Amino acid sequence: MRKFNIRKVLDGLTAVSSAASASSASQQQQAGNRESDIQETLQSEHFQLCKTVRHGFPYQPSALAFDPVQKILAIGTQTGALRLFGRPGVECYCQHDSGAAVIQLQFLINEGALVSALADDTLHLWNLRQKRPAILHSLKFNRERKWLYVGTERGNIHIVNVESFTLSGYVIMWNKAIELSSKSHPGPIVHISDNPMDEGKVGYNYFFFKCEYHFFKKKGLHSFRL
């Protein structure tokens, strides 16, 4: 008959109990470490502010244009934002990098393009043919023009210095602008514009005449009766 040793059994139970106690203590220590890693207070780095949706009419609108063919409405704002509206549910948001106010918008009909003019003297050409509108070209102009043309009801044109807002003393008289063969008064000045090809020339319209004047030659070049 095989003998049963009670001492070995007790030693085995003691070893198992010690191992279980050690494992339980290790698990409790790991749980305590995990709890110490969890921060119960929220910090500023836990948050990030971002725009998820835009709704309603654009804030501070400053320019508007409409494409009658594509049925697209473009609205520019004083913060340089550009909103495009199509059929219900179709909307696109774009932003000029400079953030300058949009003062003029013009669609290029059947060209899939839009031109935006900003208050910082820049022009931007937008490509609307792609899924996300993007700027193709940009132009920057310098404000070198210091003179303002002012037409009067008597048919004369006065030159004003924009910086000092004073008269320069240079006056284009009506009888120097039209042909000498015409003795009748041409009427009041109704329109004045620069010649884009020659800074020394200016074009202007009387009520009955259309003329062009050359500053350096100090005489009228052409005149047409309307």
Automatic annotation (TrEMBL):
GO biological process, one term: exocytosis
UniProt GO cellular component terms: plasma membrane; SNARE complex
Superkingdom of origin: Eukaryota
InterPro entries according to UniProt: WD40/YVTN_repeat-like_dom_sf, WD40_repeat_dom_sf
GO molecular function, one term: myosin II binding
Record-annotated membrane-spanning stretches: none
Protein name according to UniProt: Syntaxin binding protein 5
Protein source organism: Pavo cristatus (Indian peafowl)
